[in-house]
Amino acid sequence: MTLKNTILFLLVFFSFTVFGQEIKSEAGGPPKIAELLGFWKKVELPNEEEFNKYNPWPQKFQWFAFYNNGKVYSMMSDDDADYSSKDLKEIFASLPAEKTPNYQLDGQFLTIDNKDIKNYQELWGVNLFATDINDLFKKGRLMMTLDDGNGNVIYFRLLSRIQ
After folding, report:
1. DSSP 61-92
2. Which of 6, 52, 145, 160 is least crowded, fewest Cβ atoms below 10 Å from its Cβ?
């Protein structure tokens, strides 16, 4: 199976499982909170502009942190950098917690809100790979799929954990 076909299969598989029942398989499933906590970097998907019908975050390089207090931090750039978890912890610590979005993990759904923006909410389907499928979809990577509010996946994001 070619890489493009593998990506299409996985994206279709994850978009169906996002809105179905909570599924845990040998390939993966929803993360537990302990598996979500920490620092992550976006992994570029081949031809991702074909899969992402809408891209609210056009900067190519993205970093995230999920904290135990329910806060989610993010940073984006047009330039790549090899940040460590220590680097990101220092960067995110300089941002005001009261202006930082909150997240809530409920099974395979992750909701992000921003109290500074009235009625703002993102609904993500989340799936953590439990095994390597190929060089892109590896054990421990997190696939996030953004819902448009009508049950349609409009944006895919693949994250790799930063140690």
Report:
1. EEEEEE-TTSBEEEEEESS-----HHHHHHHH
2. 160
Q: Are strands 109-113 and 102-106 parallel, antiparallel or unpaired?
A: antiparallel
Task: Tell me the torsion sign for CA atoms 126, 20, 9, 51.
Answer: negative
Q: How far apart are alpha carbons 158 and 25 in whole angstroms?
A: 18
User: From CA 109, how far away is CA 103, in angstroms rounded?
Assistant: 10
Q: What is the pLDDT of residues 84-136, one digit of tens each?
A: 999 999 999 999 988 899 999 999 999 999 888 888 899 999 999 999 989 89
Instruction: Summarize pLDDT for 28-52 with one digit per residue, the tens.
Output: 899 999 999 999 999 999 888 888 8
Burial of residue 144 (CB within 10 Å: 0-12, 13-18, 19+) is buried
Q: In sequence order, what are the residues at sequence separation of 6 or more whose Cβ sits closer than 8 angstroms to the Cβ of residue 148?
A: 54, 154
- For residue 103, the cross-strand partners are 112
- Cβ–Cβ contacts within 10 Å for residue 35, how many? 15
Place of tokens 């996002």: 18
- Contact in structure between 7 and 15 (CB atoms under 8 Å): no
Residue 48 φ/ψ, nearest 5 degrees:
-65, -25
